[in-house]
Design goal:
The chain is an alpha/beta fold. The chain is built from 9 helices and 7 strands. It has a domain of 125 residues: HAD superfamily/HAD-like (Rossmann fold, 3-Layer(aba) Sandwich), CATH 3.40.50.1000. The chain is globular. The N and C termini lie close together (9 Å). The model has no long low-confidence stretch (mean pLDDT 96).
């Protein structure tokens, strides 16, 4: 019994922080998990930048409202759902993901939550569990699933390596060079074909 586990940002949707960096005119916020493997360090740094500029959840959600899934992402997900079970494993937050999941017809997603003060300031965040993508994949395996995982960033590597089959999708040249054993794809049709081949 198979289940496909997909990252969200960079795989199905644009990177939210990059979009917000452009909308807010704060170039340093372009930094993502493709650049910084330590997610806790990255998020604490982001929260500090937001505080410094007096920006909160509302401003980020205003940007997210204008973001659409990547071209072909919905069709890719629809096709996958017709042949196997699928879950999105993301280190994003419920407050960010919801409008994007609506545009993808509400696929299942496991993600985290932000801590937000009454005035909308992001004060912290709460992860579902440590190593959330790896932990989720192992939990599914303990329930009898063979996992097939795909992602683009450093924080996807644990779930990719732990899965029966793992793929990189639209990743960086550095990650491809560092992990040459992982098949890497740029187009949804190619990733779909690779997944179908191992189901």
């Amino acid at each position: 019994m198979n289940i496909v586990c997909l990252d969200m940002e960079g795989v199905l949707t644009p990177e939210i922080w990059i979009a917000f960096s452009e909308a807010s005119g704060i170039p340093v916020l372009r930094r993502t998990t493709r650049d910084e493997p330590d997610y806790d360090k990255l998020m604490k740094w982001r929260i500090g930048i937001l505080k410094e500029h007096g920006l909160g959840l509302r401003e980020i959600q205003d940007t997210i409202a204008k973001i659409d899934p990547l071209p072909g992402a919905k069709e890719f997900l629809d096709e996958l759902h017709s042949i196997t079970q699928v879950v999105i494993l993301s280190d994003t937050f419920e407050q960010f993901a919801k409008p994007l999941m609506k545009k993808l017809d509400w696929p299942s997603i496991f993600c985290n939550t932000l801590e937000v003060s009454e005035n909308g300031e992001i004060t912290g965040y709460k992860m579902r569990c440590a190593h959330s993508k790896l932990t989720s994949v192992k939990a599914m395996q303990s329930m009898g699933f063979d996992t097939i995982a795909a992602g683009d960033s450093y924080n996807d590597l644990e779930m990719i390596h732990a899965s029966k089959y793992g793929f990189l999708f639209r990743t960086t040249e550095k990650i491809k060079a560092d992990y040459p054993e992982l098949p890497a794809f740029e187009e949804f049709n190619d990733l779909l074909a690779a997944i179908k081949a191992v189901l």
